[in-house]
Amino acid sequence: xxxxxxxxxxxxxxxxxxxxxxxxxxxxxxxxxxxxxxxxxxxxxxxxxxxxxxxxxxxxxxxxxxxxxxxxxxxxxxxxxxxxxxxxxxxxxxxxxxxxxxxxxxxxxxxxxxxxxxxxxxxxxxxxxxxxxxxxxxxxxxxxxxxxxxxxxxxxxxxxxxxxxxxxxxxxxxxxxxxxxxxxxxxxxxxxxxxxxxxxxxxxxxxxxxxxxxxxxxxxxxxxxxxxxxxxxxxxxxxxxxxxxxxxxxxxxxxxxxxxxxxxxxxxxxxxxxxxxxxxxxxxxxxxxxxxxxxxxxxxxxxxxxxxxxxxxxxxxxxxxxxxxxxxxxxxxxxxxxxxxxxxxxxxxxxxxxxxxxxxxxxxxxxxxxxxxxxxxxxxxxxxxxxxxxxxxxxxxxxxxxxxxxxxxxxxxxxxxxxxxxxxxxxxxxxxxxxxxx
Length: 438
What we know:
21 helices, 10% strand, RNaseH-like_sf, Zinc finger BED domain-containing protein 5
């Protein structure tokens, strides 16, 4: 069945005028580097996306090694590099190297390719750096969690304590840098269980208990809970299937405007946009001065804003007509394309269609009527904007390839798990000879 799905997919991609790729590599339970690749293509006036292949990298995970595996698959299956218009990866050196990185090697054989740095990874990188005060609070929080979670006895005792206190949770969460949402969830749980954690550390005479009696430390923790909750919300909005660069760019732009708003308000001593911090300050009363915290928070928000400007430099305002061709002009287009856009705007039938279907499907359905406009629009909408699908695929790979199946070649199994294409069961049955009776 897996081979039938792959054959169908290859035929669909061959018939598409363009296709785009996104890929990532990860190490499985057996220590084998696996290259997972997805493809996006046009089919039946809609943009489809599916897993293209999963192949092991035998020796190195360099850009050249990844390109060789990718190139062999493309050539073996008769796909044309000159119809590839997009490549999305993370920002690792193997992907982005100027001469021998994967993006550079692909652009040598596919001149239409535009490389996209995964927007989810960029968001995570932009939010990573923090002022010394908040970085110290985060590190101390991780130490608290590790002291409880890394020792089974401590973990059991803490769970019993939380039960006796009637807490909503009974365990803390471990922090890991490789999980996008880890910091926010870890700090949220610690903040919710702070009374139990303080009691536990006091009982075992740990020096960490003093932080949980420090009003400024707890206020800083409450701010981190709120800002990471906001960042996690953005991160989740950038994930999912069927996204494109214009949609995600709008979400990032909206978030940067919120950062400017929050920076202005926190600079004036107003923190009502951060509910945990606002509630903590209200409970603490007027006897405490939080001006230094507001100053640090203001600096943090300003630094995040600058980091977002560094990682998200692209300006997609010139493609506003792709987002909504009925309200935007496009003076940068050729005169022929501007005339086509005027004709499109004047078609009330198309306006109804625009309001009732996804943006990518709208443009894909107009290829014959407005070929030049659609050519430009689809080269913007077709490429992947994030490597979310690969990350989700690796989660499936972890479930399929366990320590008890660590020698399994999982490409076929993974394709059956991840593909949207239905196998042609009837044709497969016809190709088999039935067992005749004696």
